[in-house]
Amino acid sequence: MIEARGLTKHYGAKKAVDNVSFTIKPGQVTGFLGPNGAGKSTSMRLMVGLDKPSAGTVTVNGERYSGLRAPLAEIGVLLDAKGVHPGRSARSHLRALAATHGISDARVNEVIELTGLESVANKRVGGFSLGMGQRLGIAAALLGDPKVLILDEPVNGLDPDGVLWVRNLLRHLASEGRTVLLSSHLMSEMAQTADHVIVLGRGRVVADAPISDFVGNGTARVTVRSPQAAELASLVMTGRPDIDLQPLDRGDGQGFSAAGLTAAEIGEVAAVNGIVLHELTPVTGSLEDAYLQLTRDELEYAAG
Ligand code: ADP
């Protein structure tokens, strides 16, 4: 469990994180989303004590990071995969970390195996690809078998197999009852990995919801094709200012895309009025649509 209450971080006049409160629950994967500069990394740095809040608090399992006696055993962290001495081998890097916590060599070998690093474990980290570096960062995060994992862009630089591997690993760790927080700029990846999403924009929480709600929320549309499209459109719109109708890209006037009502409702209006339908397709909004809708204001602000 990670709890932020009124969490705030200023850099001079800049509010990187602005009075943010949220709870990240165990047993699920929570995704941190938001445009660049939204405050994701700063929030993560505050969680793990790499920065001090200007106001408010953030605790991990009820404790501030600085109060943890054996941090590796409580929180696994992947923030900057490049923070490893390039002259060391992967194995000696992990052993050095393990030694600070009395963690056994057997556990070092276990995480090497778990992260698929066996063949390169004795090679210098300086020669690692970005993907290998990410695997090593994840190995280090898992070393203390922590209940909480905080990973900033864990799939960055991984090939498709690696992406799938991280997704399965995170889902597995959450299913064991761990708290898993990850940030990613890859919306499609987040949609497949996260159970819950917190969207930040300009240092504030823009959304905090289960991914199913978030995707369904205002973004589901229905595609309609009919030779009487205009007539059907005016019938469904009657007395419903909340409905959003857009012509289809084809522009032949034979169809529209509607948000704010279901395919069933449109089908019933068509049947009652004897209107022929050629297509009636519910289109579930993607996380990307929902995300773009939520952050449009932030992006406009940035562009202006
Ligand atoms: P994200 O991770 O969502 O891209 P960050 O947390 O890195 O966002 O940044 C949030 C805001 O705080 C940005 O405007 C960034 O420029 C600013 N910021 C972050 N770290 C510092 C710092 N050390 N000094 C000054 N400004 C910073």
Automatic annotation (TrEMBL):
Pfam families: ABC_tran. It comes from the Bacteria. Signal peptide: none annotated. The keyword tRNA-binding does not apply. Keywords: ATP-binding, Nucleotide-binding, Transport. InterPro entries: AAA+_ATPase, ABC_transporter-like_ATP-bd, P-loop_NTPase. One of its GO terms (molecular function) is ATP hydrolysis activity. This is ABC-2 type transport system ATP-binding protein. It comes from Leucobacter komagatae.
